[in-house]
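User: I'll paste a sequence; please echo it back and then give the predicted structure.

Assistant: Echoing your sequence first, then the prediction.
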Amino acid sequence: AICRHGCKYGECTGPNKCKCFPGFTGKTCNQDLNECGLKPRPCEHRCMNTHGSYKCYCLNGYMLIDGTCTSSRSCAMVNCQYGCEEVKGEIQCLCPSGGLQLGPNGRTCIDIDECSTGQAVCSYNRRCVNTFGSYYCKCQLGYELKYISSHYDCVDVNECVTNTHRCNLHAECLNTEGSFKCKCKQGYRGNGFDC
C-alpha cells in the first residue's frame, strides 16, 4: 500500500487510504479529532480536547471518584474550577491536564508554558509552540513539513523558487538552509535589498 501524501498519525492500508490512530482524523490523519464534539459525549460533565486525546473533569460541586462525578457538599464549598478529589481526608482541587497547575488561590488552573520551562521535547529542527494545557512542535521558520521517504520531516523552504524573498529587482536570490541571501547583480551595489 502506497499513500502518496503519507499518513501522519496513522498507517497506510491501501492506495492513498489511511487508517488513523485513535484521536486523529482527516485524509492523511493529520488533524486532531475533537472527541468532545462526538455524540454520545465521552464525558459525564465537562470535556477538554487535547492533541490526540481528551480529558474529562467534573462541574464545580462534584468530586471525581473512580472515573465518575459524584455530588459533594465539601467540594461545592471549596469552589474549584475543574472539580476536586479527596486526598487523605482533605479536599484538593484538580486540573484536567499535566500542562496545567493550580493557581495561587488553589481553586483555578493556570497554564504551564512547557516551551519556556524546558519541559517540552522537540527535535532539533522543530520549535515549541505553547497551548493551554499542553504544547506541540512545529517546523523552525524557513522550513516546512513534507512527507519524504515514508515519514514526515521539516525540509528547507527555497524562498528563491517560492518567490517569498524580498530581494531587490536588481539582485539575485541565493537559497540557504532555513533562509536566503540577496546579492546585487553586476553593475549594482548595495546589501541586496537595496541595490
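Residues 144 and 195 are 30 Å apart (CA to CA). The chain has three helices and 18 strands.
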